[in-house]
Amino acid sequence: MSIRKDFKIERTARYYLSNEPSSLQPYLCFVLHGYGQHPEFFLRKFEKAQRSDILFVAPEGLHRFYLQGSSGRVGSSWMTKEDRLNDIDDYCRMLDQVAAMIMEYQRFEKVAIFGFSQGVATACRWANSTKLKFETLINWAGAFPPDLDFEAALENFRPKELHMLCGDDDEFISEERLEEHLNFLKEKGLHPDLHRFEGKHDIYNAPLKALLEEVFPTHPHP
């Protein structure tokens, strides 16, 4: 027989910025990596979009592990099935702290939350619980978690822009699964804009640039 005891600790977490915040960046986008990814390398996918007017912030999931064996490259995860509710609370609280630190720099014209793969569920849960004022939620190659509080989400997400993106050759998302998920969301009252692109389970530059242009229109030159 064993007796479980939970307790809170203080620990160190980290996030990466595309560059130093400045008044030349009216837009802010939090980007949440997928399973086993490193936020520093994940951030490079957004730097290729060549948008100097967007500050990209890539927090790291709190679970680090070796990608192969017991040495070599390290990646991160947001959670596992073990003690999942505490992990969800922990990463939502961590993301709120990251957002609070970033928002101290300046006022942004528009804020978006972007999740990729495993980071989609993280983005949805955080967006549904945070007090951060954001305008857009972007789910790339991932699904709304089925245990999300959809009653609250319907209220929280209704005035927001919701985007879903999925490649036509995604090895983890079949056309049948995508259709089932869209029907599920429709039943819950959510109607995200669906964007399809040619490609697999990855972020491609062309559809990313097109999406960012839609979400964050470039300011005309004076």
UniProtKB/TrEMBL annotation:
Serine hydrolase domain boundaries: 31-203
Residues annotated as transmembrane: none
Signal peptide start and end residues: none
Protein name from the UniProt record: Phospholipase
Superkingdom field: Bacteria
Cited Pfam families: FSH1
Native source species: Croceimicrobium hydrocarbonivorans
